[in-house]
Amino acid sequence: MSRIPLRPSRAGVEWEFDQVSFPSELSRNVVTRLLVDRAEHGGWELDCVRISTDGTRRVVLRRKIIRAVRTA
User: Fold this and answer.
1) Which residue has the higher pLDDT, 16 or 10?
2) Does the chain have fewer CB atoms within 10 Å around its N or its C terminus?
3) Do residues 1 and 47 lie in contact, with contact meaning Cβ atoms separated by under 8 Å?
4) Whether pTM exceeds 0.85
5) Long-range Cβ contact pairs of 34-38 (< 8 A, separation 24 or more)
């Protein structure tokens, strides 16, 4: 896993990105379960999936960064 720098898509919204690779030996159901687990427990959502010719899945996940504002 490697973290990708922040990429603002619109004013006031910042996203954190994470790249995950899954080998071709893993079934589609296993990969789905792993991604659902990350979504439920880490707040990640799917941004992009690329499947290479050898069957390796490269997935980019994203989650919104919520900045806490200090109140006076």
Assistant:
1) 16
2) C
3) no
4) no
5) 35/59, 35/61
